[in-house]
Amino acid sequence: MARRVFRPYDPDRPVAGPADLRTWLPPDHAVYLLSDLVDQWDLAPILAVYDQGDGGGNPPYHPLLLTKLLLYAYCQGVVSSRVIAAKTYEDVAFRVLTTDQHPDFRTISDFRERHLAALTDLFQQVVQLALRLGLATLAHVAQDGTKVLANASKHRAMSYARMGPAEDRLNREIAALLAAARAADAAEDTAYGRDHRGDERSADLTGEITRRERRLATIRAAKAALEAEAQADATAIVAADAAERQRRATAGEPKKPGKPPTPSATPDPKRQRNFTDPDSRIMKNADQAFVQAYNGQAAVDGSGHQIIVGCLVTNQAADAPHLAPMVAQVQATTGWQAPQWSADSGYFSAANVAVLEGAGSTALIPPDRQTQAAPLLPPAVAHVLATAGLVAGEAVAGPPTESAVKAAMRARLRTDAGRRAYGRRKQTVEPVFGQIKERQGLRRFLLRGLVKVAGEWTLWCLTHNLRRIVQALRADPALRLRMGNG
User: How far apart are CA 173 and CA 368, in angstroms?
Assistant: First the structure.
């Protein structure tokens, strides 16, 4: 049998690389398209930060380089600053993007945190680009929320009811340790003299006291914060009631029934505060498990390219309060309102339906869980029910009641057109969360605090849109020409 001959393989032989690293990547590689996109953006909010420096020290890395590096890394699901820094050596695409420059991981981390506020402006520019390219049309917008783990453990949270006993216990322990420390000092003074050092027992006790005092200060701060929040909530309830009573009196309407409220300023005993990330909250996720998390909201265009046109993050578990702010954000970002707006039953309320109808959108929000078993209604019957429910008609004796709006919405969603329109929601917004969590790898926020987490969520949504735009540009050369002409 003839001996098999292999190609030469010598790991110790130097490998001659190309003079230009770009020859190792195909011309339509995603890194080139992303780089071209970012070149067209207005980075004034980021550049303005560098105008405030004193000009001393070594020149910083170019903000354009760091912006591209951060965005491309998130598109690839790489979020650790240390891993991003390593990629500039190990990954050809990263190396090409940075023109063989290698920012330190601390530089990358500081850049990300420093410019979180500027990401909102970049997000708006990306949405506007998607609209110009026809990748978003705003004919239909679907909104939903997803729970994202906070950078904190739920076991580092404590309820208000437990804070008082914990505070008392720590006070007793500190007093006992102080007494033990004084006794140890007296015994050592007797054994070694006041000017001589003995064993390390007193030092150990000092460390125990310091740890407990630090824990006590943390619990007291959390307790005070919960009490301040409860006081603010009580004040807001009283102020809202007084304003409504004044409005009715000014308008000559009947007085508001009942006495003015007297809410308690004492926190709910079950209300919790996390010591690691106080802004995060215990929430129930899709698996019905309780987790320390934030609620990430997204409004997604229904044209098929799954472009996120609005995003926000909150520490409120309920979805309903976030519809009106999202409507306002989409209007501010795009300049107009979608003719149709869908959301699941968690967003239903008469007030939310009124917000959408008042903005010119047809609301598609079921008041209860949708099933395919309910028979369709003839369009004429559905129109009569909707009008009677005052969803589209004018109120004769005041605003529509909650029950009337529910009946009208059920009628709207039991028509063939309504059911088909609402059916677009699942294929529009839910896959986006799957892509961000599975494809890009979002499992837990890196940063802490609502303000920083909001910037991080914007970064995730921004890079999701970039991925979708780059995919569309690679698939359609004509779209690239349109982008160049735009």
Answer: 53
Q: What are phi and psi of 300, to 5 degrees?
A: -115, 135
Packing angle of the helix pair 30-39, 63-75 (nearest 10 deg): 140
Give the DSSP H/E element, type plus range, for residue 29: none
C-alpha–C-alpha distance, residues 214 and 199, integer Å:
25
User: Dihedral sign, CA of 295, 310, 114, 74?
Assistant: positive
Name the β-bridge partners of 341.
141, 363
Confidence bin at 318 (pLDDT 50/70/90): very high
Least confident of 54-58, 119-123, 464-468: 54-58
Best CA proximity match to 299, nearest among 267, 272, 331, 251: 331
C-beta separation of 121 from 458 below 8 A: no
- Which single residue is written with the structure tokens 């329109």? 421
- pTM, two decimals, is 0.81
Which residues face 364 on adjacent strands? Answer: 342
The closest alpha carbon to 464, from 119, 223, 162, belongs to: 119
Place of tokens 């760091």: 66
Query: What Å distances lie between residue 56 and 7, 52, 53, 103, 239, CA to CA?
Result: 55, 12, 8, 19, 52
Reduced to 3 states, what is the DSSP secondary structure of residue 278? Answer: coil
How many whole angstroms separate alpha carbon 89 and alpha carbon 96?
10
Question: In the chain, count of helices (H) and strands (E)?
Answer: 17, 8
Tell me what the mean pLDDT of segment 457-475 comes to.
Answer: 94
Share of the chain above pLDDT 90, in %: 43
Q: How many Cα atoms sit within 13 Å of 415 on the Cβ side? A: 17
Residue 291: beta bridge partners? 283
380, with CB counted inside 10 A (0-12, 13-18, 19+), is exposed
**Which has more pLDDT, 63 or 385?**
63
* Nearest-10 Cα torsion for 8, 14, 19, 21: 80
Between strands 362-364 and 340-343, the pairing is parallel
The tokens for 271 are: 């209300």
CA angle at 362 for the pair 360 and 365, rounded to the nearest 5°: 130
- Lowest mean pLDDT segment, chosen from 134-138, 155-159, 198-202, 427-431: 198-202
Q: How far apart are CA 37 and CA 35, in angstroms?
A: 5
- How far apart (Å, rounded) are the C-alpha atoms in residues 402 and 367? 10
Q: What is the model's pLDDT at position 68?
A: 95
Residue type at 140?
A: H
CA-to-CA distance for 133 and 365, rounded, in angstroms? 29
Contact 147, 285 (CB under 8 A): yes
Given a cut of 60, is residue 20 above it in pLDDT?
Answer: yes
